[in-house]
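agent> Task received from the user: take the single chain below, predict its 3D structure, and emit structure tokens. No templates, no multimer pairing.
agent> Plan: (1) validate residues, (2) run structure prediction, (3) serialize to tokens, (4) report one or two observations.
agent> Step 1 OK, no nonstandard residues flagged.
tool_call: predict_structure(input=
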Amino acid sequence: MAIYIRFQAPKEVQDLAYDLVEKARDNGKVSKGANEATKQIERGQAKLVVMAEDVTPEEILAHMPILCEEKNTPYTYVPSKQELGSSAGLLVPTAAVAIVNPGKDKAGIENIVKKIESLKKQG
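)
tool_result: status=success, residues=123
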């Protein structure tokens, strides 16, 4: 497991994360890439951060979970940077995506945050 992975997200949470990124891309606002996601977290504007597990070098995302926890920003993981990139509307892989505005699916964000919180308590 990579150094930045704090908990294992089950398939249900991973699928929900991809889905939320797609919906936010279409109806809301997403910031794509580790640098853009970091900026949104620092500004307190990220509602959810989704990180890929297959990022190399791992150091690209090493700061991300710590920063998210400092700023009380929920975050989760998905297995594929390629699939995360395509969910965000990119033709290339991306290490991280920050959902800044979930668009019409605010309830979806609340739902995944509850699931993530319970995962962290178990871990």
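agent> Step 4: summary for the user.
The first helix runs from residue 11 to 27.
agent> Done.
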